[in-house]
TrEMBL record:
Annotated protein name in UniProt: D-alanine--D-alanine ligase
Family assignment from sequence similarity: Belongs to the D-alanine--D-alanine ligase family.
Highest classification ranks of the organism: Bacteria, Thermotogati, Deinococcota, Deinococci, Thermales
Organism from which the protein derives: Thermus composti
Cofactor (UniProt): Mg(2+); Mn(2+)
Associated pathway: Cell wall biogenesis; peptidoglycan biosynthesis
Amino acid sequence: MEKPRILLLAGGRSQEHEVSLWSAEGVLAHMPFPTDLAVIAKDGRWLLGERAQEALRAKEAPTGDHPFPPPLDWDRYQVVFPLLHGPFGEDGTVQGFLELLGKPYVGAGVAASALCLDKDLSKRVLAQAGIPVVPWVALYRGERPFIPFDPPYFVKPANTGSSIGVARVEDYAHLEAALAEAFRYDPKAVVEKALLGVRELEVGVLGNVRGEASPVGEVRYQAPFYDYETKYTPGRAELLIPAPLDPGTQETVQELALKAYRVLGIRGMARVDFFLVGEEIYLNEINTIPGFTPTSMYPRLFAAAGVPYPELLRRLVELALSPV
């Protein structure tokens, strides 16, 4: 079989625009197939060819050239790789367009993408399936907050990633300001109970329907929580792969990740994040388009499992072309 040609989509309208371009640089450097880049600017217009490369070098594209749909020869590409973090890319919107085109793409489908990005809806499904999650409530803009558990809290926009709009709240008096910040990014927010003595664990999953789990990694840092700067500034966080866990705990985390992956109907890839408090394990959230930046955990987890970066990308493309 001839090598498939890939179209990599990066940038996007979300607050994670720059993160997407950092990820795209890593993927382009390791992709084993011929690949073209298209960048979606912050205004929703598209950049193609050399203009897309200029945006990649600048790590930002405030404005684009072409309105949607862009003037692309879609028949030229066998697989599309949407590397668009957050809303308008990781939420099923782009995936729906690619479904209409009949074009295979890397990663989760429309329903799973939308479900996983929404922290409230995904928790509801996971809890119903018996997977432990941190206590939370969802609030829409304008609603009076009633929180049935004591502070401290984490307040988050329901549909963002990279800790954008997230705040840790130590007492009820500061809840309103934190909610106002979250509502800047989304009309729905979640308020989660902040657990004490937490270890943060992450595991990668690769596959369709029946995925395979990577070793479990652990993130350690000095900041009050794993915020945007800590995630993407080299040296701010320490990534331990494998995490120093007893074999039973590692196996339980991997099993929960695979169960959640199947329950939510994910394809291709995901990074599943957990909290460990003593011996209690809680699933925090699932990222259907994990980061591929220099500080990202997902490619490192599979490298530790003996799947180097180019092989990981090759398998993701093959999974996009596979019916099961």
